[in-house]
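Subject: for your reference before the review

Hello V.,

The reviewers asked for a structural picture of the protein, and I figured it would be easier to keep everything in one thread rather than splitting it across files. Below is the amino acid sequence we used in the manuscript, unchanged from the supplementary table.
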Amino acid sequence: MALRDKLQATATRLIGNATDERDEVFIVAETITPGATEFDPPLISTVDTRIDAIVTGAGSWVDGDTILMSDLRVVVSGFYDLVPVGGSFKINGKNHVVKIADPKLATGVKSAVIYFVRRG
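And here is what came back from the structure prediction:
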């Protein structure tokens, strides 16, 4: 196992150990299937994938413009695909939109990702 893989595995283990069992966090992925003809609307389906994550308030990162006091900070292992800005998380049954995605790289591989999300 290369150093990169070990660092990512360590981050995954630490985030899993620090996860609060009361917080249910899901990544919401949308799949768009085009219609069979030009007159058929596309089919949009969503898949929720449960993940281990550390959810806290935005705290000292609040700037009043991009990050608001009501936003949440979500720390996720780098093992999962990066959720782009505008993507969705479902936290305790409520949808949240990604406002900032900040991957933390260790030797060029993302070990963890810090997201700031807003309910909506």
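For the response letter, the relevant points are probably these. The two ends are 40 Å apart (CA to CA). The first helix runs from residue 3 to 18.

Happy to draft the paragraph if you're swamped.

O.
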